[in-house]
């Protein structure tokens, strides 16, 4: 890859009059030795699986194996039909779709890690709902995924994308930033605006810990995907309106690394702190352990 | 770079619930299977850090075993991998360790196949991506995302030149290479990552070089889930 920073992406795009998506596609061809048709086909396949997961989460039983979560996407979907959501219909739809995909994940269904499974609802939530709203072609959505991938590539190599290394900011935080940047480009924003969206989004999730109850990717992961989808749209709207991230997005990525490294191990996907160790979290964990013993 | 391309960020296509604990674990298992040279008869798996704390809830145990059975992260059989392994006569045990590991998501797989023992240590570094950090007491660091050869050999002057000659003759670029040895002119493990796989003929020549004991290829590149 010719870029290793978010500023580097903007520089290359400006010098080559390119979108982030087109730059990522060219770099991927160079890196993998595959043809453009091949890599587009792989990404198109991934987008199809994302759409299938949205549909599955809205229509099938997504009760997880633990029994702790499931069907919340369907609750929001139903509420949207009957009531007027405070968020407005479009943001509520992104929220419902994000919950749907995360619930498919928690029930051991098939998803695409974006960048991880714990954060797999955010990009499909935003992409699929916006595709319906703006009547975008699949091809355009696939290009959006390449743009999101370019942003995630920089974050992953300069900080991290796993909760065990950097807390939830590394997973949901990265996904929100990727979705925000890609959405800004999809709506006609410049690469520089897209990177402002990334910086704005990342700043909003700094310090978010990874404290899943029972160690499962369920509580609070699923609802954080719902929140994340709405945050991504918020960041993209701000950037498209001309709001800038005063602290450049690359510096925010450095802060994310610093904060993650300072985070105690109990709050990095070990279920030894945070929500996992609340009285209720501990009770749930005990019940799950007893259930597992009975199953053996 | 720990993450090398767009599909290490968008992807893999996988069965939930965790990219580190499920998809990455399946890939660790599959890499260990390749290094072992096939399906082991027995697997003793030590888990560290977050793996040790949360492996049952995330299906890490099923996913590691699914990988040992050769399954991809997108294979729905991951859910039933423990049962399938038992049916196939693979003996599996898990031991959570409280000892700190270099990376929080780490597993050590001690595999036995036909009386031969292979020990593979690896970490799941996020988004389903992995890093193999130890093989039979050698310190290594490779991702198995590209065609990778592990050459177990005795050290002698000219050994590396003989090996790289074969890559040159095959017109292949070496992207990454490392050598770890236990003593001067003792046992060595050389890891070679290249842009394409070495053809069979070159592989045979490599295996027959003086001092080479065993060669095994590891590559996890999966176009899974796109069909």
What secondary-structure arrangement, pairings included, does this model have?
The complex is a heterodimer of chains A (296) and B (227).
Chain A: H1 6-15, H2 20-32, H3 36-59, H4 72-82, H5 89-106, E1 110-112, H6 122-134, H7 138-158, H8 163-166, H9 168-186, H10 191-203, H11 221-240, H12 249-262, H13 279-295
Helix pairs in contact in A: 2-7, 3-5, 3-7, 4-5, 5-6, 5-11, 6-7, 6-9, 6-11, 7-9, 9-10, 9-11, 10-11, 10-12
Chain B: E1 13-15, H1 19-36, E2 42-48, H2 49-58, H3 60-68, H4 81-87, E3 91-96, E4 105-113, E5 116-126, E6 129-135, E7 138-142, E8 148-154, H5 159-169, E9 174-181, E10 187-194, H6 200-207, E11 212-218
Parallel strand pairs in B: 2-3
Antiparallel strand pairs in B: 2-4, 4-5, 5-6, 6-7, 8-10, 8-11, 9-10
Helix pairs in contact in B: 1-3, 5-6
Task: Explain what this protein looks like in three dimensions.
The complex is a heterodimer of chains A (296) and B (227). In chain A, 67% of the residues lie in helices and 1% in strands. By secondary structure, chain A is an all-alpha fold. Chain A has a single domain (6-295), classed as Orthogonal Bundle (2-methylcitrate dehydratase PrpD). In chain A, helix 6 (122-134) runs antiparallel to helix 7 (138-158), helix 7 packs antiparallel against helix 9 (168-186) and helix 10 (191-203) crosses helix 11. Chain A starts with 5 loop residues before the first helix and ends with a helix. Chain B folds into 2 domains: 12-136, 2-Layer Sandwich (60s Ribosomal Protein L30, Chain: A); 148-218, ACT domain (Alpha-Beta Plaits). In chain B, the strands form 2 sheets. In chain B, strands 3-2-4-5-6-7 form a 6-stranded mixed sheet. The radius of gyration of chain B is 17 Å and the shape is globular. The chains are: A mainly alpha (296), B alpha+beta (227). The interface between A and B is large, with 66 and 48 residues. Strand 1 (110-112) of chain A pairs antiparallel with strand 1 (13-15) of chain B, so a sheet runs across the interface.
């Amino acid at each position: 890859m010719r870029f290793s920073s978010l500023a580097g992406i903007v520089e290359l795009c400006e010098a080559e009059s390119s979108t982030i998506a087109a730059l990522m596609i060219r770099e991927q061809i160079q890196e993998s030795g595959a043809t453009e048709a091949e890599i587009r086909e792989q990404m198109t396949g991934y987008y199809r699986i994302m759409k299938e997961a949205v549909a599955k989460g809205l229509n099938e039983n997504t009760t997880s194996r633990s029994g702790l979560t499931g069907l919340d996407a369907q609750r929001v979907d139903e509420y949207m039909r009957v009531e007027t959501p405070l968020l407005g219909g479009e943001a509520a739809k992104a929220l419902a779709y994000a919950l749907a995909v995360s619930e498919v994940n928690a029930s051991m269904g098939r998803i695409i890690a974006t960048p991880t499974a714990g954060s797999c609802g955010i990009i499909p939530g935003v992409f699929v709902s916006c595709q319906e709203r703006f009547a975008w072609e699949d091809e355009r959505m696939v290009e959006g995924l390449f743009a999101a991938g370019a942003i995630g590539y920089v974050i992953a190599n300069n900080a991290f994308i796993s909760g065990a290394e950097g807390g939830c900011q590394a997973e949901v935080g990265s996904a929100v930033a990727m979705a925000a940047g890609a959405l800004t480009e999809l709506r006609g924003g410049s690469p520089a605006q897209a990177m402002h969206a990334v910086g704005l989004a990342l700043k909003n999730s700094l310090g978010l810990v990874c404290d899943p109850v029972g160690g499962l990717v369920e509580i609070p992961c699923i609802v954080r995907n719902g929140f994340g989808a709405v945050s991504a749209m918020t960041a993209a709207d701000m950037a498209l309106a001309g709001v800038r991230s005063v602290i450049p997005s690359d510096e925010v990525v450095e802060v994310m690394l610093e904060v993650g490294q300072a985070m105690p191990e109990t709050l990095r996907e070990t279920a030894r702190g945070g929500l996992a160790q609340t009285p209720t979290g501990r009770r749930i964990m005990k019940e799950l352990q007893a259930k597992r013993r009975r199953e053996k | 770079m720990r993450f090398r391309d767009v599909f290490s960020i968008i992807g893999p296509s996988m069965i939930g619930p965790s990219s580190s604990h499920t998809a990455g674990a399946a890939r660790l298992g599959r890499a260990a299977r390749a290094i072992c040279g096939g399906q082991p008869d027995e697997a003793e798996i030590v888990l560290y850090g977050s793996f040790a704390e949360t492996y049952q809830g995330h299906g890490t145990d099923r996913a590691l075993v699914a990988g040992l059975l050769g399954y991809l992260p997108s294979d729905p059989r991951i859910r039933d991998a423990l049962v399938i392994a038992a049916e196939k006569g693979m003996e599996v045990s898990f031991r959570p360790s409280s000892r700190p590991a270099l990376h929080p998501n780490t597993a050590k797989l001690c595999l036995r196949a036909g009386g031969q023992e292979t020990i593979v240590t690896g970490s799941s570094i996020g988004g389903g991506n992995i890093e193999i950090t130890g093989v039979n007491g050698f310190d290594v660091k490779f991702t198995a995302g590209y065609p990778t050869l592990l050459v177990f050999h005795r050290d002698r002057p000219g050994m590396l030149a003989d090996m790289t000659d074969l890559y040159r003759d095959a017109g292949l670029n070496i992207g990454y290479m490392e050598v770890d040895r236990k003593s001067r002119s003792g046992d060595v493990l050389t890891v070679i990552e290249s842009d394409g796989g070495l053809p069979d003929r070159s592989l045979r020549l490599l295996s027959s070089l003086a001092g080479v004991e065993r060669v095994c290829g590891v590559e996890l590149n999966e176009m899974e889930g796109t069909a």
